[in-house]
Structure formats: C-alpha cells, structure tokens
Specification:
mainly alpha
Length: 148
C-alpha cells in the first residue's frame, strides 16, 4: 500500500498544482480583463477628445475660408473705390479746366465751420466725440451763424 499512498500523494500534489495553476491563470485573466476595460474607457475618452478637436478644426477651416473670401471681396471693393476716386478726381480736374465759374468756386476759401470740421481730431468713437465736444468745439446748429 505504500506504493498506493505514494501514488495518492502524487495525485494530490499534481491536483493541487493544477488547481494552483488554474487559480493563477484565472487571476491573470481577470487582471487582463480589468486592464482591457480601463483601456477601452481611456480609448473612448480619447476618441471623444479627437472628435471635439476635429470639429474645432472643421470650424476653424470654415472660418478661415470665410475670412479669406471676405478679405478678397474687401480688396476688390477697395480697388473699385480707388478706381472710382481716381475717375472722380480726373472729372473734377476736367471741370476745373473747362469751367471758369467752377475754378473760382474751387479756389474760394472754405467757410469757417467747414475749416473747423477739417481741422478737428479724428473721432474714433462715442467717448472721443464727447471729449471733443467738452472742449467747447461744438458746431453751431444748422442755419445758425457761428458769430452769434
């Protein structure tokens, strides 16, 4: 029977080793599943951030294209305005050369109120306008002489 006892012990030891190996593998599998879940969560968060950044880039691209189109339009409008201004200036010069009365009018000094308008500082907003008015530079009402 001692041989049977040895065999039984061997069988018990092998069984214990098998149970321990199965337990160890189960523990490793559980750890791997937990790591897999945490990586899936992290991946989902990164995917959300990536989608947000992608949306921001699309919005920036649209804004850039819109700004580019508007800038092109403004340049075209500025060129057109410049061309119209040159055309107007040439027309004024033609009229000045052709018409004696117009030459006298163009050579006459400007009225005081107009001179004051031309010499006032650039007004860049409501605050600068109020400051300018507070310096007692108000224009007279229409139809009222500045000397009154």
């Amino acid at each position: 029977m001692p041989e049977g006892d040895n065999m039984m012990r061997t069988l018990i030891v092998v069984s214990l080793i098998a149970v321990a190996a199965i337990g160890f593998q189960t523990w490793r599998l559980d750890n791997a599943e937990q790591e897999n879940r945490s990586q899936k969560t992290a991946l989902a968060a990164l995917k959300t951030k990536l989608n947000q950044k992608n949306s921001q880039l699309i919005a920036l691209n649209i804004l850039t294209q819109t700004n580019s189109r508007e800038q092109t339009r403004l340049y075209a409008a500025a060129e057109e305005t410049s061309a119209l201004l040159q055309k107007r200036q040439r027309r004024i010069e033609e009229l000045t050369r052709e018409n004696e009365e117009f030459r006298r009018w163009a050579a006459a000094p400007l009225p005081d109120a107009v001179i004051r308008l031309r010499t006032r500082p650039a007004i860049t907003g409501g605050q600068s306008y109020r400051e300018w008015l507070s310096e007692d530079n108000a224009l007279p009402a229409a139809g009222v002489s500045a000397a009154q």
